[in-house]
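Thread: "does anyone have the structure for this chain?"

Original post by V.I.:
We have the sequence but no experimental structure in hand. Need at least a predicted one for the grant figures.
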Amino acid sequence: MKNTAKKLTLWALAWPIFIELFLQFLLGAADTLMVSRISDDAVAVVGFSNQLFSAVTTLFVTVASGAGILIAQKLGARKNEDARTIGIMSLTVSFGIGLALSAVLYLFPRPISAWLQLPEELLPLAETYVSIVGGGMVLVAVMSALNTAIRNTGNTKGPMYIAIGMNVVHVALNYAFIFGAWGFPKWGLLGVALSTVICRLLAVLVLLFMFLHAFERPIRVRDLKQFHRGLFGEILRIGWPLGVNMSCWVFSQLAIYAYIAMIGAAELAARTYMNTLESFCFMLGYSIALALQIQIAHLFGAGRMQEAYRTAYRALFIGLGIVIVNAAVIYLLGKPVLGLFTKDETIVAFGVSLLGLNILLQPGKMLNMAIQNALNAVGDTRFTMWISLGSLTIIATGVSYWFGIGLGWGLTGIYIAMILDEYVRGALALTRWRGRKKLREAEGGMADDKVQASGIRQESVLDV
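Reply from O.Q.:
Generated one for you, tokens below.
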């Protein structure tokens, strides 16, 4: 890679990621707004389907995430061919997993929706939407692999530009298919599904072109048959705990939404709107955490352990400052902003009651995101998996039910449990990072390599 040092500053990596995430957020908001013009049932089906799709993506994120970290480490160690091979395997394996998921979702949309307790009157709409968008899940798998590989080479601008293009095309196609504009047929929810798949297909084609030229040696079509068992083992070693970690988070969120639904419809609406406000709050902090993971993985691969260790704290302090300011702004402006979403005074009151708790939530979330990503970057993914498995199961899922339902504290009790979960995971991750376990192991391995190389040189001199 050329000019790698220039590209790998925290800000240079973070701001394109932020723009990409922000545009993805706008894409979802525009989707919801336009689909609401069809019917409330259509909105419910899209929301339900997105939860289903989020759950199944964990199957290929395992490969893509592990591959991304290894690509950054190998490039940092100047093992460009290994990085290239890992990128190729990530793409081909993700394609295979995505193809299998697409087949299942395309063939069995109605039984799957019924099994997940979707109301019977919504099943016809779900059959249409899940079969088309779910049938294109292979595109999501390929996008994930390509995006992650490209981003971890240090090129975070490429995926950002593609996100911009996707937003423009998706909104235009949604408008055309929903309202029958510009001579297009008026297809309603079918049109929204087709619009989603078309945008993803176009994005995959552009990302694929970018991926073929992402490494020092261009990738040819015949290279896609490459498979290295040892390197794939490294991908799984790092990747499978990340998949478990993500699965724990997805299912804990599903459980929390189910608890809130048990409390009442107004509370569920308030949580949904607060989730939107919180996304604005932590999005830049999350971008910094993702950029930090890329930067530390490169430094770790290059053997710059002290710099990697300090970089985590620098990013954490920057991120904390950003999310605290954002949370304070939302606290001050929250009531009028919530009023833009709904005129229901009960829902607004529930949302306003959570604004103060959000100020406590966001620093814990930032601590958790930054330090867990730092640990993941050096390959300590099993530790982050175990703390997530424990805290998300016991606190985020169990204590949320106890506080919210058992003790009758409602939405406030659930938020308190969410705050507790973030700080527990963050504190455990910080303790692990301060111990420098993986960094010391890597330093020891480097020292052994130097001793071995020195011995080989001495033997060569004696032979002469």
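V.I.: this helps a lot. Residues 238-464 form one domain.
O.Q.: and The radius of gyration is 23 Å.
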